[in-house]
Amino acid sequence: MTPNPYAPVGKCIYCDSPIYDEERPKQKLGDEHIVALSLGGTMILPEASCAKCEKIINKVETNLTRGMFLPARTQLLYPTRNKKQRPKHLPLDIDSGGGLLTKQIPIEDYPGMLVVLCFNPPLALLNITPTDTPLTGRVAVATLPNFGDNLNKHPRRTVTWKMGGDAPTYGRMLAKIAHAYTVAEVGYGRFKPVLLDIILNQPPLYMTHYVGGEIGDPPPASMERIEISHTIEDLYDGRKLVLVKIRLFADRQGMPTYLVVSGEIF
Predict the structure, then answer these.
(1) What residues contact 188, with CB distance under 8 A and at least 6 apart?
(2) Which helix (H) or strand (E) holds 80?
(3) Which residues is 211 bridged to in the sheet?
(4) Residue 111 C-alpha from the chain's centroid
(5) pLDDT tens digits, residue range 187-233?
(6) Distance (Å, rounded) from C-alpha 57 to C-alpha 199?
(7) Is 0.70 surpassed by the pTM of this model?
(8) For 44-47, which contacts have Cβ atoms below 8 Å and span 24 or more sequence positions?
(9) Per-residue pLDDT reduced to its tens digit, 91-138
Protein backbone atom coordinates (compact mmCIF):
# COMPACT_ATOMS: atom_id res chain seq x y z
CA MET A 1 0.00 0.00 0.00
CA THR A 2 1.40 3.41 -1.00
CA PRO A 3 1.87 5.71 2.02
CA ASN A 4 -0.32 8.81 2.06
CA PRO A 5 1.95 11.75 1.12
CA TYR A 6 -0.11 14.43 2.87
CA ALA A 7 0.23 15.49 6.50
CA PRO A 8 -2.82 16.27 8.66
CA VAL A 9 -4.11 19.82 8.20
CA GLY A 10 -5.67 20.31 11.63
CA LYS A 11 -8.27 22.80 10.41
CA CYS A 12 -11.26 22.55 8.12
CA ILE A 13 -9.97 23.62 4.72
CA TYR A 14 -13.37 25.12 3.86
CA CYS A 15 -14.30 27.17 6.97
CA ASP A 16 -11.09 27.16 9.10
CA SER A 17 -12.81 25.40 12.03
CA PRO A 18 -10.30 23.55 14.28
CA ILE A 19 -12.93 21.04 15.46
CA TYR A 20 -15.05 18.43 13.74
CA ASP A 21 -18.27 19.00 15.69
CA GLU A 22 -19.17 21.66 18.28
CA GLU A 23 -20.88 19.02 20.43
CA ARG A 24 -17.78 16.80 20.34
CA PRO A 25 -14.86 19.23 20.27
CA LYS A 26 -12.22 16.58 21.05
CA GLN A 27 -13.09 14.50 18.00
CA LYS A 28 -10.59 14.76 15.15
CA LEU A 29 -11.53 16.54 11.96
CA GLY A 30 -12.62 14.25 9.12
CA ASP A 31 -10.24 13.00 6.46
CA GLU A 32 -11.00 14.52 3.07
CA HIS A 33 -10.89 12.55 -0.18
CA ILE A 34 -9.61 15.05 -2.74
CA VAL A 35 -11.65 13.21 -5.37
CA ALA A 36 -14.58 11.23 -3.99
CA LEU A 37 -13.88 7.57 -3.25
CA SER A 38 -16.93 6.67 -5.35
CA LEU A 39 -15.20 8.23 -8.37
CA GLY A 40 -12.02 6.27 -7.78
CA GLY A 41 -10.25 8.90 -5.68
CA THR A 42 -7.36 7.61 -3.57
CA MET A 43 -5.68 10.86 -2.44
CA ILE A 44 -6.60 11.72 1.15
CA LEU A 45 -6.01 14.92 3.09
CA PRO A 46 -6.10 13.93 6.79
CA GLU A 47 -7.97 15.96 9.42
CA ALA A 48 -9.20 18.49 6.90
CA SER A 49 -12.99 18.86 7.08
CA CYS A 50 -15.60 19.61 9.75
CA ALA A 51 -19.00 17.93 10.00
CA LYS A 52 -20.91 20.96 8.70
CA CYS A 53 -18.81 21.34 5.55
CA GLU A 54 -18.70 17.57 5.01
CA LYS A 55 -22.49 17.54 4.88
CA ILE A 56 -22.59 20.27 2.21
CA ILE A 57 -19.92 18.62 0.08
CA ASN A 58 -21.34 15.10 0.38
CA LYS A 59 -24.73 16.35 -0.86
CA VAL A 60 -23.12 17.77 -4.01
CA GLU A 61 -21.04 14.68 -4.72
CA THR A 62 -23.91 12.28 -4.03
CA ASN A 63 -26.15 14.19 -6.46
CA LEU A 64 -23.71 13.28 -9.25
CA THR A 65 -22.34 9.90 -8.17
CA ARG A 66 -25.87 8.51 -7.70
CA GLY A 67 -27.20 10.37 -10.72
CA MET A 68 -25.41 10.98 -14.00
CA PHE A 69 -22.35 8.90 -13.00
CA LEU A 70 -24.26 5.92 -11.59
CA PRO A 71 -24.35 3.71 -14.73
CA ALA A 72 -20.60 4.10 -15.28
CA ARG A 73 -19.71 3.60 -11.63
CA THR A 74 -21.88 0.49 -11.45
CA GLN A 75 -20.84 -1.20 -14.68
CA LEU A 76 -17.14 -0.32 -14.29
CA LEU A 77 -17.16 -1.47 -10.63
CA TYR A 78 -15.98 1.79 -9.14
CA PRO A 79 -15.43 1.75 -5.36
CA THR A 80 -18.35 2.01 -2.96
CA ARG A 81 -18.41 2.15 0.83
CA ASN A 82 -21.26 -0.36 0.93
CA LYS A 83 -21.26 -3.02 -1.79
CA LYS A 84 -24.74 -4.13 -0.70
CA GLN A 85 -26.05 -0.78 -1.95
CA ARG A 86 -24.59 -1.26 -5.44
CA PRO A 87 -27.69 -1.34 -7.70
CA LYS A 88 -28.56 -4.55 -9.53
CA HIS A 89 -30.93 -2.73 -11.92
CA LEU A 90 -31.03 0.70 -13.55
CA PRO A 91 -34.05 2.53 -15.04
CA LEU A 92 -34.47 3.00 -18.80
CA ASP A 93 -37.39 4.72 -20.56
CA ILE A 94 -38.34 2.64 -23.63
CA ASP A 95 -40.96 3.41 -26.25
CA SER A 96 -41.71 0.33 -28.34
CA GLY A 97 -44.64 1.98 -30.11
CA GLY A 98 -47.22 1.99 -27.35
CA GLY A 99 -45.92 4.93 -25.33
CA LEU A 100 -43.00 5.54 -23.00
CA LEU A 101 -42.51 2.91 -20.33
CA THR A 102 -39.88 2.90 -17.58
CA LYS A 103 -38.24 -0.49 -17.19
CA GLN A 104 -35.74 -1.67 -14.59
CA ILE A 105 -32.91 -3.27 -16.56
CA PRO A 106 -30.42 -5.71 -14.97
CA ILE A 107 -26.92 -4.24 -14.84
CA GLU A 108 -25.51 -6.92 -17.14
CA ASP A 109 -28.12 -6.03 -19.81
CA TYR A 110 -28.08 -2.25 -19.37
CA PRO A 111 -26.90 -0.19 -22.39
CA GLY A 112 -24.77 2.11 -20.27
CA MET A 113 -23.36 5.49 -21.21
CA LEU A 114 -20.98 7.81 -19.41
CA VAL A 115 -22.21 11.40 -19.76
CA VAL A 116 -20.12 14.34 -18.56
CA LEU A 117 -20.23 18.10 -19.08
CA CYS A 118 -17.69 20.25 -20.92
CA PHE A 119 -17.04 23.93 -20.25
CA ASN A 120 -15.27 26.93 -21.76
CA PRO A 121 -11.98 28.05 -20.13
CA PRO A 122 -12.31 29.99 -16.84
CA LEU A 123 -12.49 33.73 -17.43
CA ALA A 124 -10.00 34.46 -14.64
CA LEU A 125 -7.25 33.50 -17.06
CA LEU A 126 -8.21 36.56 -19.13
CA ASN A 127 -7.67 38.83 -16.12
CA ILE A 128 -11.11 40.44 -16.35
CA THR A 129 -13.57 41.53 -13.66
CA PRO A 130 -15.63 38.59 -12.26
CA THR A 131 -19.32 38.40 -13.11
CA ASP A 132 -21.85 35.95 -11.70
CA THR A 133 -22.75 34.42 -15.05
CA PRO A 134 -24.44 31.00 -14.80
CA LEU A 135 -22.25 28.03 -15.67
CA THR A 136 -23.47 26.18 -18.73
CA GLY A 137 -21.92 23.24 -20.48
CA ARG A 138 -21.85 20.97 -23.47
CA VAL A 139 -22.08 17.20 -23.24
CA ALA A 140 -19.46 14.54 -23.88
CA VAL A 141 -20.54 10.90 -24.09
CA ALA A 142 -18.69 7.59 -23.93
CA THR A 143 -20.42 4.24 -24.27
CA LEU A 144 -19.77 1.53 -21.72
CA PRO A 145 -18.87 -2.12 -22.42
CA ASN A 146 -21.40 -4.10 -24.51
CA PHE A 147 -23.46 -0.96 -25.18
CA GLY A 148 -24.57 -1.97 -28.70
CA ASP A 149 -25.40 -5.56 -27.82
CA ASN A 150 -27.33 -4.51 -24.74
CA LEU A 151 -29.26 -1.83 -26.60
CA ASN A 152 -30.34 -4.38 -29.20
CA LYS A 153 -31.89 -6.54 -26.47
CA HIS A 154 -34.69 -3.97 -26.11
CA PRO A 155 -37.06 -3.61 -29.10
CA ARG A 156 -37.84 0.11 -29.28
CA ARG A 157 -38.53 3.18 -31.31
CA THR A 158 -36.87 5.49 -28.80
CA VAL A 159 -34.85 5.09 -25.62
CA THR A 160 -34.32 7.76 -22.98
CA TRP A 161 -31.64 7.53 -20.31
CA LYS A 162 -32.26 8.99 -16.86
CA MET A 163 -29.08 10.96 -16.20
CA GLY A 164 -29.65 13.65 -13.57
CA GLY A 165 -27.11 16.29 -12.56
CA ASP A 166 -26.68 19.88 -13.73
CA ALA A 167 -23.89 22.32 -14.57
CA PRO A 168 -23.85 24.27 -11.26
CA THR A 169 -23.63 21.08 -9.19
CA TYR A 170 -20.93 19.75 -11.51
CA GLY A 171 -19.01 23.00 -11.17
CA ARG A 172 -19.18 22.89 -7.37
CA MET A 173 -17.77 19.36 -7.38
CA LEU A 174 -14.85 20.44 -9.57
CA ALA A 175 -14.24 23.44 -7.31
CA LYS A 176 -14.05 21.18 -4.25
CA ILE A 177 -11.56 18.88 -5.97
CA ALA A 178 -9.38 21.79 -7.08
CA HIS A 179 -9.38 23.50 -3.68
CA ALA A 180 -8.57 20.33 -1.74
CA TYR A 181 -5.82 19.42 -4.20
CA THR A 182 -4.28 22.89 -3.94
CA VAL A 183 -4.26 22.70 -0.14
CA ALA A 184 -2.53 19.33 -0.40
CA GLU A 185 0.08 20.38 -2.95
CA VAL A 186 0.67 24.09 -2.24
CA GLY A 187 -0.11 24.07 1.48
CA TYR A 188 -2.82 25.31 3.80
CA GLY A 189 -2.48 29.08 4.28
CA ARG A 190 0.07 29.46 1.48
CA PHE A 191 -2.35 30.75 -1.14
CA LYS A 192 -5.44 32.97 -1.27
CA PRO A 193 -8.39 30.62 -2.03
CA VAL A 194 -11.09 31.78 -4.45
CA LEU A 195 -13.40 28.76 -4.58
CA LEU A 196 -14.85 28.62 -1.06
CA ASP A 197 -18.08 30.49 -1.92
CA ILE A 198 -18.67 28.12 -4.83
CA ILE A 199 -18.04 25.04 -2.70
CA LEU A 200 -20.27 26.19 0.16
CA ASN A 201 -22.88 27.75 -2.17
CA GLN A 202 -22.59 31.29 -0.83
CA PRO A 203 -23.50 33.70 -3.69
CA PRO A 204 -22.18 35.44 -5.65
CA LEU A 205 -20.36 32.36 -6.92
CA TYR A 206 -18.52 33.72 -9.98
CA MET A 207 -18.40 30.14 -11.21
CA THR A 208 -17.60 30.84 -14.87
CA HIS A 209 -14.74 33.05 -13.71
CA TYR A 210 -12.97 30.21 -11.90
CA VAL A 211 -14.35 26.90 -13.24
CA GLY A 212 -14.03 25.78 -16.85
CA GLY A 213 -12.35 23.40 -19.23
CA GLU A 214 -10.08 22.99 -22.21
CA ILE A 215 -11.40 23.64 -25.71
CA GLY A 216 -10.71 21.22 -28.53
CA ASP A 217 -10.41 17.49 -28.89
CA PRO A 218 -9.85 15.64 -25.60
CA PRO A 219 -6.60 13.75 -25.08
CA PRO A 220 -6.45 9.99 -25.67
CA ALA A 221 -7.67 7.63 -22.98
CA SER A 222 -5.21 7.25 -20.13
CA MET A 223 -4.03 4.31 -18.08
CA GLU A 224 -5.29 6.18 -15.00
CA ARG A 225 -8.88 6.70 -13.86
CA ILE A 226 -8.12 10.20 -12.61
CA GLU A 227 -5.57 12.72 -13.83
CA ILE A 228 -4.93 15.81 -11.72
CA SER A 229 -2.10 18.33 -11.68
CA HIS A 230 -1.50 22.04 -11.18
CA THR A 231 0.51 24.86 -12.69
CA ILE A 232 1.20 28.47 -11.72
CA GLU A 233 -0.13 30.95 -14.29
CA ASP A 234 1.53 34.39 -14.46
CA LEU A 235 -0.81 37.28 -15.30
CA TYR A 236 0.44 40.48 -16.93
CA ASP A 237 -0.25 42.48 -13.74
CA GLY A 238 2.20 40.31 -11.79
CA ARG A 239 -0.33 38.07 -10.02
CA LYS A 240 0.21 34.33 -9.94
CA LEU A 241 -2.83 32.05 -10.16
CA VAL A 242 -2.98 28.37 -9.26
CA LEU A 243 -4.56 26.46 -12.16
CA VAL A 244 -5.68 22.90 -11.44
CA LYS A 245 -6.20 20.46 -14.31
CA ILE A 246 -8.67 17.64 -13.62
CA ARG A 247 -9.67 14.73 -15.80
CA LEU A 248 -12.24 12.31 -14.41
CA PHE A 249 -12.86 8.88 -16.02
CA ALA A 250 -9.58 9.50 -17.84
CA ASP A 251 -9.33 5.86 -18.89
CA ARG A 252 -12.43 6.27 -21.10
CA GLN A 253 -12.05 7.74 -24.56
CA GLY A 254 -13.48 11.23 -25.09
CA MET A 255 -13.34 12.54 -21.53
CA PRO A 256 -12.51 16.27 -21.26
CA THR A 257 -9.94 18.10 -19.16
CA TYR A 258 -11.26 20.66 -16.68
CA LEU A 259 -9.42 23.85 -15.75
CA VAL A 260 -10.12 25.36 -12.33
CA VAL A 261 -8.45 28.47 -10.91
CA SER A 262 -8.17 27.64 -7.22
CA GLY A 263 -6.36 30.63 -5.80
CA GLU A 264 -3.64 33.24 -5.94
CA ILE A 265 -0.09 32.74 -4.69
CA PHE A 266 0.92 35.30 -2.07
Answers:
(1) 9, 11, 13
(2) none
(3) 260
(4) 23
(5) 999 999 999 999 999 999 999 999 999 999 999 999 999 999 999 99
(6) 7
(7) yes
(8) 44/4, 44/6, 45/6, 45/9, 45/13, 45/180, 45/183, 45/184, 46/4, 46/6, 46/7, 46/8, 46/9, 47/8, 47/9, 47/10
(9) 999 998 888 889 999 999 999 999 999 999 999 999 889 999 999 989
